[in-house]
Specification:
The chain is an alpha+beta fold. It has two domains: 156 residues, no CATH class; 197 residues, 2-Layer Sandwich (Alpha-Beta Plaits). It has 14 helices and eight strands. Strands 1, 2, 3, 4, 5, 6, 7 and 8 form an eight-stranded mixed β-sheet that branches. Strand 4 and strand 5 form a beta hairpin. The protein is elongated. The protein starts with a helix and ends with a strand. The model has no long low-confidence stretch (mean pLDDT 79).
């Protein structure tokens, strides 16, 4: 049931991206029609033989078809290539597949135009002949380059969204954090166990690839839990949730165990590539108020400030001492209320925090 729920969330997220791309491309295609039509009117050309309605419908079909096909290609293939392959290889692959998609869409749209103009069936031989005789090389090249630019803009939008994390880029655009705000947030500090020893055994280059593989494998689980990747600090990942998002279905806890399961399933891969070594994480979670806002001039980002981050890092550092993989503050557990059945908390004692009068009770799950 849980797997099905996560699968539905993933598909819904991908479908939402495709629908936004389709809407964007349909608007562009419609604007392209109005621009071309107004140019014909301004030049006082004879357009009595043309049907504006048919061309408008054709533009809508172009946007919808291109958006659904191209949007699916961007979401399921092209954006993944850019994330996991070299840019040269990715761009060449995108260019080839885009060309194929473009000519399929262009052929379909032109056939619709000609069939409507001639008032004949879509697959009639005269339709094919009219399509063949009407294609202007210059027009085809212009449209090809125009839609290539639209594809590139769409890809850049997705890459920038990936750069800042889901939801964060939208906050940037809307200026949500231009002025600092106080928010309730959950933070998890994830750290690879024995990272210093692993780095010494693998060497700098091999260890860097090890980290890349680990981050590649755990990122989907972070996104599935609706977490936001705040920072990569060496071999540490700092993840944040808004209060309601992190508490919902115990997302902040489920994230850790989904990551743990993924790394266990991938253990064979790591042992084969990295001298029998496998990654394991330890985690510390805490909850509280932070100040959040945009910071920086050249390299602007959304930053968090507050005791919550320092405390979460301190909690994570106690995992080795207490012999557990995950530690959660009692404050966070109280905020979460009754946990789902798959989680059972166990008291692990208290830690004294510098500058604080009262010790903080810790639990493992």
């Amino acid at each position: 049931m849980k797997k099905r729920s996560l699968y539905i969330k993933k598909i819904s997220s991908q479908a939402e991206k495709i629908l936004w791309i389709t809407l964007f491309w349909t608007i562009i295609s419609t604007l392209q029609f109005f621009s071309s039509y107004s140019t014909l009117i301004q030049l006082d050309l004879d357009i009595s033989g043309l049907s504006p309605t048919a061309f408008l419908y054709g533009s809508l079909i172009t946007g919808l078809t291109a958006g659904l096909i191209g949007g699916s290609s961007i979401v399921f293939f092209w954006s993944k290539w850019l994330r996991t392959k070299s840019y040269a290889w990715s761009l060449l692959s995108i260019l080839c597949s885009y060309s194929l998609v473009y000519f399929v869409v262009a052929l379909t749209t032109t056939m619709y135009f000609k069939a409507t103009q001639l008032n004949i069936a879509f697959n009639h031989p005269d339709t094919w002949e009219a399509v063949w005789n009407s294609n202007s090389v210059l027009t085809v090249v212009q449209n090809y380059l125009f839609w290539l630019l639209i594809v590139i803009i769409s890809l850049i939008g997705l890459l920038v969204n990936d750069k800042y994390g889901p939801g964060v880029f939208k906050s940037f655009i809307l200026g949500k954090y231009f002025q600092p705000k106080r928010e309730e947030r959950i933070f998890m500090f994830l750290d690879i166990r024995g990272s210093t020893t692993i780095a010494e055994q693998l060497g700098e280059g091999k260890y860097f690839n090890f980290l890349k593989d680990v981050i590649r494998d755990v990122t989907p689980k972070i996104l599935d839990s609706k977490g936001e990747i705040y920072q990569y600090v060496g071999d540490e990942i700092v993840i944040s949730w808004k209060q309601n998002t992190g508490i919902e279905n115990a997302n902040c806890l489920q994230c850790f165990f989904d990551i743990k399961k993924t790394l266990l399933e991938r253990a064979g891969y790591y042992r084969e590539r990295y001298k029998g070594l496998t990654p394991e994480f330890k985690a510390g979670l805490h909850y509280g108020f932070v100040m959040v806002g945009e910071i920086g001039i050249v390299k602007r980002e959304i930053a968090y400030s507050g005791d919550v981050l320092n405390t979460a890092a301190r909690i994570q550092s106690k995992c080795n001492e207490m012999g557990v993989d995950i530690l959660v503050s009692k404050f966070l557990l109280n905020k979460m209320g009754e946990l789902p059945k798959q989680f059972a908390s166990k008291a692990m004692g208290e830690i004294k925090l510098r500058g604080k009068q009262h010790a903080l009770a810790l639990y493992t799950v």
